Amino acid sequence: MHTVRPVLPWEIPVLSDAFVAGALARARPAERSRRTRRVGGLPEDAVAGRHARLRELVARRVAADAPLTERFAHLDQRESGASWTAWQTAVARAGADDDPEVVAAARAVWEALGPNAYRLELVPRPATTAGVLEGRLWLLVAALGCVGLVAAGAVAEQRFGWSGWLCVPAITVWLVLVGRAFTVRYRARERLGGRGLPRL
Fold first, then answer.
1. How many helices and strands, by DSSP H and E, does the chain display?
2. How do strand 14-15 and strand 3-4 relate by DSSP bridges?
3. DSSP track, 22-75
4. CA distance to 95, 109, 134, 195, per residue, from 186 (Å)
5. Is the pLDDT higher at 93 or at 54?
6. Where do the domains of the chain lie?
7. What pTM was estimated for this model as a whole?
């Protein structure tokens, strides 16, 4: 195991087993079909070809170990969304992550997948002050809306004799709407690697 030094502008230093295992996991067909449209990178056929080449190289390294070969074959059958850490054992035990040809093939896969896929898998997502402030802003919006609805309910009760309890369903609807808006915003940001997320 060693540290893979950055070559492409968007790379960071990464341990070689993570670099290779991440490329194997992220570019397999089940994972590519599950994910949303990639940001940047090369066409799907280029990703598939480079992944096949990487998988072939690693398979050669594990071929001498029957249990490891069986484990490696089963990894491709794992459900989509499986963490790349499941591939680390096979890659490390076979010493594939120390093979310059394997590392170069993994880099070719990451280049095809694009910078966003790389950041999503290998770059820690920062906990930013902006994310904390945005989370507090969402809470403030939800709270102010509730206060406004309670005040509106009190005014309606005084002027029109309506029950003040009518504000309860209105508050429920408001919180649901704010929650859905926050979820949409969060998921859109979550699809972009290297970006801080709103933190409540």
1. 9, 2
2. antiparallel
3. HHHHHTSHHHHHHSPPPSSS--HHHHHHHHHHHHHHHHHHHTT-HHHHHHHHHH
4. 39, 28, 11, 11
5. 54
6. 3-122, 129-190
7. 0.69
